[in-house]
Amino acid sequence: MRLFLAVAACAALAVSAHGQTARPVQTLQSSAGPIKITPVYHAALMIEAGGKVIIVDPAKPADFTGLPQADLILITHEHGDHMDPDLAAKLSKADTEIWANAATKDKIPSAQVIGNGDTKKWGAFTIEAVPAYNSVRGPAAGKFYHPKDDGNGYVISYGGKRIYITGDTENLPEMSAIKNIDMEFLCMNLPYTMTPDEAAAAAKVVHPKVVIPYHYRANPPTDLNAFKTALDGSGIEVRLLEWYPKS
Fold it and tell me: What is the number of structural domains in the chain?
């Protein structure tokens, strides 16, 4: 089922040069100017602020047609729906930096490793790598789809605004330390991450001003309306965007 964002503040539409389905661009107003966040596909998104472009988790079949190349690429972890070396190279300029977890460096040797608990300055941005892992779900007993201390979530701060991109995770104790989030991109799908109810519980821990579910493709489909209903009365604004546009 296609989900369209209702007309709301802080939202705009951008269309690629090839007439692709409109991208539901989100805008945060910061003390340093606007921050534009463009959902691309599944876990891939683009952040523009201060004349800089950050691309997160570029992986096929994400279509970046009509979008600028990156100044910085952030990769949460090495799985193929989050990281593609060829697409990262296509989106890079001569001076583009790639920051990623340690396992990604095996596939993209130019990547700089950033791990859980690291905080780095990048121009006017501050980027924190936070834990993202499974504590319950995995392919076999004693194994997890996303092991602890491997992948990252990212908290990106700019002009007094804070954006949290969870990466692939479950509801973790470490989330209680993540504060003052203006916009959260929260994963949910089975069997790899969370159910809608589990994701809603995780959102209540962080309590962002706005939460946007992403990474939600699954079979059977993820019930995004159940997620939204679970957050009724929480004071958290839920925005349901289309991350899987049809051509």
Answer: 1
Q: Please report which residue ranges of 31-156 form alpha helices under DSSP H.
A: 85-90, 102-105
Neighbours of 101 (CB within 10 A): 24
Closest CA to 10 of 210, 164, 185, 227: 210
Tokens of 204: 């209540």
6 CB neighbour count, 10 Å cutoff: 7
Six-digit token string for 25: 């661009």
Q: What is the pLDDT of residues 39-97, one digit of tens each?
A: 999 999 999 999 999 999 999 999 999 999 999 999 999 999 999 999 999 999 999 99
3-state secondary structure of 83: coil
CATH number for the domain spanning 19: value is 3.60.15.10
Amino acid 12 reads A
In a domain, 153, yes or no: yes
For residue 247, being part of any structural domain is answered with no
